[in-house]
Amino acid sequence: xKVLNIHKRTLTQPKNIVVEILKTLSTENDKVxxxxxxxxxKFKGGIKVGAKGGHGPIRYSVEKYNPNEIIQFKFNKPYGxxxxxxxxxxxLDENKTEIKHTIDMNAKGKGILIxxxxxxxxxxxxxxxxxxxxxxxxxxxxxxxxxxxxTKFLRKQISKRKK
Length: 163
Hints:
Elements: E1 2-11, H1 15-22, E2 42-43, E3 52-55, E4 58-66, E5 70-77, E6 81-93, E7 96-107, H2 110-139, H3 149-162
Antiparallel strand pairs: 1-7, 2-3, 3-4, 4-5, 5-6, 6-7
């Protein structure tokens, strides 16, 4: 099953400011990843081409890294996720920047079920939470995107299993 999942957010900040925020991804002072609500993104030795890491049960390695434009990851797990996900930064004008997250993969076997019934909804919420975190760090606002019913249900089930 072909999966193309795209999230975009336009930020009213110059690109160089957004680049500096994105450089904090997977660091102790992470201003991108919503680790307050989701499993932390971790890479041994930081984000660089070839680094292996991930978050929760999702594992990937860094395929491309140009901090001014793109961080691209190749999925390693779960099995059945064949493809990539990436963050891209694009200057729209001198005070407006677009941040974009894309999953471009083929889901096979159990990966189809995992994506359709669990990961898609959780992923969508996680990315919007991350974009909220970026926006809040840049503007000082307190934007919070509401999770849908399915995401809330899945999160409740996951928390019950951890107890």
